[in-house]
């Protein structure tokens, strides 16, 4: 949703993640959901994403990295790269790192 520049959908997904999570994941997901604009959501997404990229990934998922923002995220490996930090401005900036 962040890669699609869709703030309402991103906030809904982050809220759902917070409800299904515990501990630091829950706290970080809720913090990212509780923002007023997409730039703030993306900034708060960074620590959540850093936590997620250090976890065991579900099958078919991989870690991607954007050198411009110096941040990682998890996405499906078979999908085209979709940078959540830049959205439509630089959607494919980055590469898969695992």
Quick overview:
By secondary structure, the protein is of the alpha+beta class.
Q: How is the biggest beta sheet arranged?
A: 3 strands, antiparallel
User: What quaternary form is this?
Assistant: single chain
* Terminal CA distance: 22 Å
Tally the beta strands: 3
Number of helices: 3
Shape: globular
Q: Give the SSE order as H and E letters.
A: HHHEEE
Global mean pLDDT:
96
Helix/sheet category:
alpha+beta
Percent of residues in helical segments?
40-55%
Whole-angstrom Rg = 12 Å
Order of strands in the sheet with the most strands? 2-1-3
> Spans of 5+ residues with little confidence (pLDDT < 50)?
none
How much strand?
5-15%
Description:
The mean pLDDT is 96. This protein is an alpha+beta fold and 98 residues long. Strands 2-1-3 form a three-stranded antiparallel sheet. The chain is built from three helices and three strands; from the N terminus they run H-H-H-E-E-E. The protein starts with 6 loop residues before the first helix and ends with a strand. The radius of gyration is 12 Å and the shape is globular.
